[in-house]
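[User] Could I get a sequence and C-alpha cells?

[Assistant]
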Amino acid sequence: MTPRVLVVDDEAPIRLLCRVNLEAEKMDVVEAADGPSGLEAARRERPDVILLDVMMPGLDGWRVAEELLEDPDTSAIPIVFLTARAELRDQARAASTSAGSTT
C-alpha cells in the first residue's frame, strides 16, 4: 500500500517542494492551501501522516492540529509540523500538541 501524505501549507512553493520529494519516494500526496481545506482533506482522505505548516493566515496550524486531535476520526494521524520558528516555546507547544494524539 502506498503511503498517503497530506501537505497543508499556504505557500505553493513549499507544497511543491514537499510533493516532488515525497512522490520521488513513491508516496501519494494530497495538498491543502489553508487550515480549513486541510481539515476537510484530512477527514476525507485519511492520510497516513500530515505535514502541517504552523504559520498560516486565519486558521493556523496549531488550531488545525487541535481540531484534528479532538476528532476521533483523525486523532490517530501523526502530524509533523513545518515551521521556520525555532523558539523553545514553539518546540514545547508542538511536543505537547503531538503528545495529545497518543491518548
Observations:
- Residues 12-24 form the longest helix (13 residues).
- The radius of gyration is 13 Å.
